[in-house]
Design goal:
It holds the Pfam family SLT_2. With about 400 residues, this protein is mainly α. Helix content is about 40%, strand content about 10%. The strands form 4 sheets. A 3-stranded antiparallel beta sheet has the order 2-9-8.
Length: about 400
């Protein structure tokens, strides 16, 4: 995830909120509401967190208005040649192999256009965003996907502690269960956004794509993916769960136990990979996504933003937050024993906001996509699906 925002296919978006978590709806918009951390909806990708300083590829640069990657004599341009040499050295890939893939990469003007900054600020609308994802088509398709892969979903839930509904909801939001996985060649998309990112004011973003390109090259060298034929979104996200190369390398799982990971053709691999990703990013088995609470009228002032919860339950109680069932004792390992965060779901056109209290499991989903809208939509779709299937809900 990235800006990191998880780059979904343009066609993929949507979700709704669910019942267990007590929320405050249609509250007046507070003047100091924290901005939605994702910026544009659907623009982050699993695995787009900035790499550790020691692993980031420093060579190379982004030239927004340039296009090709080769000089007139057919050689890689100097900055890209320097990048090739560093990738070879840092990743242990033969230089000739790196150069061959980079020479094969082609500038993709459509990917650059889709990533370009919007000329005008888009007003955020939680209601509009939610209604794109928690809707009849995804709910029906999600039920069918769940029924078809029930055994694998139950196995993943047992192994990783992530409810089936959450896994199914993420795949539904990302690609509607494989209907929209993207037809951009990943090599071209990553090279375009790594070396020709369309916004020169955001050098950190082009750096992220160059690092993802290095991951793709390494995966190709290890024969785990064919970089010349792999397709995905305009940002390089692949398969049913839309994993970036870095996520494929570090978090994907071989769900069908056939000795290879295929996020396009194996729903079992996609299911296991989503579950493993969430568990490795802080998912706590047994916790709800949203804590069942009533928030005070000034909930907007409690929003801190970010991808990690910071409040203790005692702090929140002192600030006026109340558990929906205060007489019920906090069980060991219950949500009151963990850090919590107030989530703001802003609707600027309607001049209102909804607030919820996120547990570590909410914030685990934000590592898949940094948008609070995204994570809340996943939770809502998951709740709707669990209601239809009769078990495995997020709350």
């Amino acid at each position: 995830m990235f800006k990191p925002a998880r780059i979904l296919q343009v066609a993929a978006l949507s979700l709704s909120l669910a019942g267990c978590a007590s929320t405050q709806t249609a509250a007046p918009m507070a003047p100091n509401i924290a901005p939605d951390p994702a910026g544009r909806p659907g623009e982050a990708a699993a695995g787009m967190n900035p790499p550790a300083e020691s692993t980031s590829i420093k060579a190379g640069s982004s030239v927004p208005r340039a296009e090709g990657f080769l000089s007139a004599d057919g050689r890689l341009k100097p900055d890209i040649q320097a990048y090739a040499q560093e990738v070879s050295q840092r990743r242990g890939v033969p230089l000739g192999h790196v150069e061959s893939l980079l020479r094969a990469a082609q500038y993709n003007a459509t990917a650059a256009k889709l990533m370009a900054p919007h000329p005008a600020r888009i007003r955020r609308s939680w209601v509009t965003y939610k209604n794109r994802f928690v809707e009849p088509v995804r709910i029906k398709a999600g039920q069918e996907f769940w029924a078809a892969h029930r055994a694998r979903l139950d196995a993943a839930a047992k192994e990783y502690g992530v409810p089936p509904s959450v896994i199914v909801a993420i795949i539904g939001v990302e690609t509607i269960y494989g209907r929209h996985t993207g037809n951009f060649r990943v090599l071209d998309a990553l090279a375009t956004l790594g070396f020709r990112y369309p916004d020169s004011s955001r050098p950190e973003r082009s750096q992220l794509f160059r690092d993802q390109l290095a991951d793709l090259i390494q995966l190709d060298h290890e024969k785990k993916i064919d970089a010349l034929s792999a397709t995905g979104s305009f940002a390089g996200a692949m398969g049913l769960p839309q994993f970036m190369p870095g996520s494929l390398m570090r978090y994907a799982a071989d769900g069908d136990r056939d000795g290879r990971i295929d996020l396009h053709g194996s729903p079992d691999d996609a299911i296991a990979s989503v579950a493993r990703f969430l568990r490795l990013h802080g998912w706590v088995p047994g916790l709800p996504v949203f804590a069942p609470v009533t928030l005070p009228a000034n909930a907007g002032t409690l929003v801190k933003g970010g991808l990690y919860p910071t409040y203790d339950w005692r702090q929140l109680e002192a600030l006026g937050v109340r558990a929906t069932h205060p007489a019920q004792p906090a069980q060991a390992g219950g949500w009151r024993d963990h850090k919590l965060g107030v989530v703001d779901l802003i609707d600027e056109p309607r001049k209102q906001a909804e607030y919820r209290l996120g547990t570590p499991n909410f914030f685990a989903i934000t590592h898949y996509n940094r948008s609070y809208f995204y994570a809340s939509s996943v939770a809502d779709l998951a709740q709707a699906l669990a209601g239809k299937m009769g078990y495995g809900g997020p709350n």
